[in-house]
Amino acid sequence: MYLVILLKNEGGFARARWETVDEVVEHEGVTYSLRAGPRQPLPTDHAWDEVAVYAPEEISEEEFQDWYAALRPQVEELRLKY
User: Fold this and answer.
1) Closest by Cα among 43, 54, 59, 42 to 18
2) Are 71 and 65 contacting, i.e. CB atoms less than 8 angstroms apart?
3) CA–CA distance, 44 with 9 (Å, rounded to integer)
4) What are phi and psi of 42, to 5 degrees?
5) Rounded to 5 degrees, what angle do the CA atoms 57, 6, 62 make?
């Protein structure tokens, strides 16, 4: 099982659990591409599934980095050590 984070915009995201991760997926009518992971977080106080981060296919890598940084304080999985 994978823990999936879908970055929707600079201030919005969705969290899901998927059995598989693909390079490109459709979710709620939007095409997302895999931008980070899947990666296994280092151990913390509980076990983590591998984390994969997706963003809309049409945004640039620079925009993805900006969104990731903006959402990092809100999304625990983006703050984990890998």
Assistant:
1) 54
2) no
3) 28
4) -65, 155
5) 50
**pLDDT digits over 72-82, tens only?**
999 988 887 77
Rounded to whole angstroms, the Cα distance separating 13 from 11 reads 7
Q: What is the number of residues in the chain?
A: 82
Q: What is the pTM of this model?
A: 0.87
**Mind giving me the DSSP string for 16-77?**
EEES---SEEEETTEEEEEEEEEEPPPP-SS---EEEEEEETTS-HHHHHHHHHHHTTT-HH
pLDDT digits (tens, 9 = 90+) for 22-66: 999 998 899 999 998 898 877 777 778 888 999 999 999 999 999
